[in-house]
Write a structure and sequence with these properties.
Length: 91
């Protein structure tokens, strides 16, 4: 599920605030850090959405359809998601 812009901005603010409050961490330019955190969160959200789409496509191609949300579907979703992740990142 893709995160909304508001959610990404909120999380970026929390991350920058938490980093600033961490002992031993000094942020020289928080205004420069925030856009980078937003970019990283956006990229991660797009990646998750892409993997989710691929997994749903694979599960939809099975000859025996399973109701989404069922225990069997959840187990197959997790296994397929792990396989897609490993395939993409060669893990």
């Amino acid at each position: 599920m893709r995160m909304s812009r508001e959610r990404i901005f909120h999380l970026a603010d929390l991350i920058v605030k938490e980093l600033g409050a961490t002992p031993g961490v000094h942020i020289k330019a928080p205004d420069d850090l925030r856009p980078e955190v937003i970019r990283a969160l956006t990229d991660e959200s797009k990646l998750e959405e892409s993997i989710d789409g691929e997994v749903r496509k694979i599960l939809g191609s099975y000859s025996r359809p399973m109701p989404e949300g069922s225990r069997e579907w959840e187990v197959l979703y997790q296994k397929t998601r792990e396989e897609v992740f490993r395939k993409r990142f060669r893990l």
